Amino acid sequence: MAETDDQATALELRPKPSLRLGLSGKLLLLTIPLVMIAGLLIYVAAIANFRINRLNDRLAAANTAALVLDAAPSGFVPETLARQILTSIGARAVAIKMGQQRRLLASADLPAAIDHDVDMRKITVWSAIVDAFELMLERGDQTIRVVGPAPGQAQFIEVVIDEKPLRAAMYRFSRNSLVVALLIAALTAGLVYLALHYLFVRPMRRLTASLVGFHENPESSARIIVPSQRGDEIGVAERELSDMQRDLVSMLHQKSRLAALGLAVSKINHDLRNLLASSQLLSDQLASVPDPRVQRFAPKLLRSLERAIAFCQSTLSYGRAQEAAPDRRMILVEPAVAEVRESAGLATDASITWISAIERGLTIDADPDQLFRVLLNLVRNAAQALESRPASDGGARQVRITGRREGTVTIIEVSDTGPGVPAKAREHLFEAFQTSGRPGGSGLGLAIAAELIRAHGGQIHLVEGTIGATFRLSIPDRPVELLSIRNERARA
């Protein structure tokens, strides 16, 4: 019931999806104004250039008209012809300056005053833009005097024109530019949107969908994203996400098996204790039997029963990450190795040759029980590896244990002449539930051994380039100060 309430609370606290624009909509809304801003900047330059070109066209037409008017006999041009020429070039007057003389070639309906002067010889970019927008914002029929270079010996030519036709032309140009800009903006925004959508938005949606689906069921390998062949950052993100999901699925499966093992051991632990307790009572009675052989093996039987209970509890403790800290002291290695041999059943197994090459008087600073567990796991693994190799194949079936000291470090090697460790198993050699290759194996032996050795501050690894499999474990002595304190406490 409490778990149901917690789940309901988690669902209430989870943010609800809103009806906001997705990444595609935001991308589209961002692209359109950016394209419009670019079009506006282009329009500002275009409208200023349009005005300058119109004024230059008037000057060019005025230059042509000046040649015609100046070529008239005695400089006299009929008024009707002058009006026709001025109407054709869209001007009210044309004047030219030669030397110190300023000559009015033709005029018609000149205003009393000129409203604006524009000298095309001194115009700048900024002034062209400002004058263009000032012209468009004005009202009424005002006049402009445009001054520009003149052909031949003349210094400059002047033409007086009305603003209204020019303003109307600029409005038409602006309207046409706006329509073209909208079409270009829509086309550009659409192309940019489609390009970004297929290059970025769709892959991001795929990543998001994979994350959401994986969050709903993180133990399902079907929810793992299949990375594409892209070589950019999105391809890297897909491959890294796929690897992370695979590692997480494997880890969750391992945790699930570990939890199941812990639950199973906890269920059978009570009944197993009762059975072993009965065995202990029977073995206690064997201690009163005067047979020398019984007296010799009875203590070992009691010790084996105690260790059986401890091994059952150690499996549960490993599942709960509650391995006890090692109770270290200096012990002889050779008696511990002999006890491991008897417990593994190799003392009476004639099919497997046992070789012990321990330095005489070699000691190790370790917990006796935990060292026994580590060596027993390694020896049993070696014996099980040799079981897959029949004795009739002509090869020697050996288990070899060597021990030596290098300074303050004790090194013990357990090797066999079996088939060795498969390459696939070496990737997760000391991980729980990963390395067992035999039916019924739990894959816990090497994981427990590695944890116990690490608790001693030592290391365990597989030695490469040997026949069969060779595991080397090294345990350093504790600092002298710590040893002296422990010894004083033991004497007290």
From TrEMBL:
Residue ranges crossing the lipid bilayer per the database entry: 27-48, 177-200
Record's keyword terms, sorted: ATP-binding, Kinase, Membrane, Nucleotide-binding, Transferase, Transmembrane, Transmembrane helix
A GO molecular function held by the record: protein histidine kinase activity
Pfam families linked: HATPase_c
Protein's UniProt keywords contain Kinase: yes
PANTHER family: SENSOR PROTEIN CREC, SENSOR PROTEIN RSTB
Name of the protein this chain belongs to: histidine kinase
Entry's EC annotation: 2.7.13.3
Catalyzed chemical reaction(s): ATP + protein L-histidine = ADP + protein N-phospho-L-histidine
Domain Histidine kinase: 267-479
Annotated SUPFAM superfamilies: ATPase domain of HSP90 chaperone/DNA topoisomerase II/histidine kinase
InterPro entries: 2C_sensor_his_kinase (IPR050980), HATPase_C_sf (IPR036890), HATPase_dom (IPR003594), His_kinase_dom (IPR005467), Sig_transdc_His_kin-like_C (IPR004358)
